[in-house]
TrEMBL record:
GO terms for biological process: siderophore transport; transmembrane transport. Residues 186-276 form the TonB C-terminal domain. One of its GO terms (cellular component) is membrane. SUPFAM superfamilies: Carboxypeptidase regulatory domain-like, TolA/TonB C-terminal domain. One of its GO terms (molecular function) is energy transducer activity. This is TonB family protein. Coiled coil: none annotated. Its main location: membrane. Keywords: Membrane, Transmembrane, Transmembrane helix. It is a single-pass membrane protein. It comes from Mucilaginibacter yixingensis. InterPro entries: CarboxyPept-like_regulatory (IPR008969), TonB (IPR003538), TonB/TolA_C (IPR006260), TonB_C (IPR037682).
Length: 276
C-alpha cells in the first residue's frame, strides 16, 4: 500500500533530481510496502489439496423401508495415488456420509455391520440417496417342500421320517463380493443325519394332537455360529423350541467376502401325526 507520506516525499524530489532517479525511488518504496504486507499476511499459511474433476459428495444410506442405516462403510473403488488409498467414510447415526474428492462418475461400495456389499454408480451428482436391497433369508427348506417330521399318535418317542432338500445360500450379496458361501461343518449330509437322529416330536404336541408347519429364520455369523433365531410360523406346544434348540447347536463354515458377511438362512419343519 502506498501512503500519502511516500507520495509526497517522492514528488519533492521532482524539482532537484533527474526523472530516472525519482522513478527508481518510487518503485523501491512500492516494492518495500508490498513485501511487508505479504510477510504480515502469510506468517502461518495453510494449504488444502484440491483434486481436479472431483466433487465433495454428500449422501444418505437407507434400508429397503426408507429408514436411515447408521455405521455402514461407504468406499470409492477409485484408487488415489496421491493419498495411496481409496476414499472411505462411515454413515453417522442418521445414515449420512461425506466423501470429499470423489470423482463425478465414481463407483461406491456400501458394506459392513453384517450387510452384504452393495454397489452404487454415481453419475455426476453431489448428493446421493442410496437404498440398500432387502435381505431375504436363504431356504434350508420351504413351505412347498418342508422337512417332514412324523410320529405315531400313540408312541410319543417314535423316530422321525424327515424329508430334506439341498442346503444352499441364496441372495448372499453380489457374486463378485463372495468368496465362499456358508455351509454346515461336515457338509449337508452330516447335518441331515444329525436332524434325523435328534429332532423329536414334543410330547405335549403329541398329547394334544398338534400338527402343522414350523418356520424358523436364523443367521450364520462371521464366526460360524447360529444367531438370531426367529419363529416366522409356529404351532406351539414346544415344536418351535425343539427346532430352534437343534439349529442353535449346529456349527457352520461362514460365508466369506469383503466387509464380512452374515448369511441369513431359514428352515421349515412339518410335524405330522400318523395312526390317528
Amino acid at each position: 500500500m502506498v501512503t500519502g507520506i511516500v507520495i509526497m516525499k517522492s514528488l519533492s524530489f521532482c524539482f532537484s533530481y533527474p526523472m530516472q532517479f525519482i522513478i527508481a525511488l518510487l518503485c523501491f518504496s512500492l516494492k518495500g510496502e508490498a513485501q511487508a504486507s505479504y510477510v504480515e499476511r502469510s506468517a502461518n499459511p495453510t494449504y488444502k489439496t484440491i483434486y481436479i474433476d472431483t466433487v465433495n459428495l454428500r449422501g444418505i444410506v437407507l434400508d429397503h423401508t426408507g429408514k436411515p442405516v447408521p455405521d455402514v462403510s461407504v468406499a470409492s473403488l477409485t484408487y488415489y495415488s496421491a493419498t495411496s488409498r481409496n476414499l472411505l467414510a462411515k454413515t453417522d447415526a442418521n445414515g449420512r456420509f461425506t466423501l470429499d474428492g470423489a470423482k463425478h462418475n465414481d463407483t461406491l461400495i456400501i458394506f459392513g455391520t453384517g450387510r452384504y456389499a452393495t454397489w452404487f454408480q454415481n453419475r455426476g451428482s453431489r448428493y446421493v440417496e442410496i437404498t440398500l436391497p432387502e435381505i431375504k433369508p436363504a431356504a434350508v427348506s420351504s413351505e412347498a417342500d418342508p422337512i417332514v417330521v412324523q410320529t405315531n399318535a400313540i408312541n410319543q418317542r417314535k423316530k422321525q421320517k424327515i424329508k430334506f432338500e439341498e442346503i444352499t445360500c441364496f441372495d448372499c450379496g453380489p457374486g463378485p463380493m463372495i468368496e465362499s458361501q456358508a455351509e454346515p461343518i461336515g457338509g449337508n449330509e452330516r447335518l441331515k443325519k444329525r436332524i434325523k437322529q435328534q429332532l423329536v416330536y414334543p410330547e405335549q404336541a403329541v398329547k394334544n394332537h398338534i400338527e402343522g408347519l414350523v418356520k424358523v429364520n436364523f443367521e450364520i455369523e462371521k464366526d460360524g455360529s447360529v444367531v438370531n433365531p426367529r419363529v416366522v410360523q409356529g404351532i406351539g406346544y414346544g415344536c418351535e423350541e425343539e427346532v430352534i434348540c437343534l439349529i442353535a447347536q449346529t456349527k457352520w463354515q461362514p460365508a466369506h467376502g469383503q466387509g464380512g458377511i452374515v448369511c441369513p438362512e431359514s428352515i421349515v419343519v412339518q410335524f405330522i401325526l400318523t395312526d390317528k
